[in-house]
Amino acid sequence: MAFVNGISVGTKAFLGTAKTARVPTGATAARRSTVMMAMSKSVPFLEQPKNCVGLPGSAEFDPLGFSDVIPIAFLQEAELKHGRICMLAALGFLVQELFTFGGSYFPKMPPVEAHEFYMKTGGMSQILLFIAGFEFLSCAAVYQTMLGKREPGYFGFDPLGLGKDEAAYKKFQVNEIKNGRLAMIAVGGFIHQYWATNQTVLDQLTNFHALTNPEAGVKTALDALVTLRQTF
User: Model-level pTM?
Assistant: First the structure.
């Protein structure tokens, strides 16, 4: 017995006092796993796009990883610009159904057909010229954004002073992003709805009928695409 005790004491002296290994509990392991791979809020089976976290109105939606290869400030600027254009376009679709200036140059017609009309009469060329001018002037602002000296999409336009309060300003930032995204989807919906039903937005709301002739809708869409391709 004394021999066994001697061996035990010698072993402890040589190897040191043994310590019990700390195995992470379920909660600790889960926290570590979350830190290692956070998942996207909008696409929960994909990894969280790290460059989109914390942005105004961010739903962490970037399944193709654009924010990993393109500066996020540039993407914010582009989204805000397209959203603002489409908010105006969505309103214009509805107003044009109710009111036009009339005459030979501003005839009353569905907005989708108006695109082809003004492509032929030169109106779209004028619009393209003006937009190119505005885009050229905005290059300086975008450059400042890329340097980190300007907030994406900020032009200091707040005539009503709605953004003086910081909390209200952040709220309006999110509102603009969400309404801009909705408008981009809406304008595409307006156009495809007309191709499919041959009805404008307000006409379908007041005189709804189901799509009874899908072949005609497809033909209208194809004709529009052919005309657009021939124009360019």
Answer: 0.74
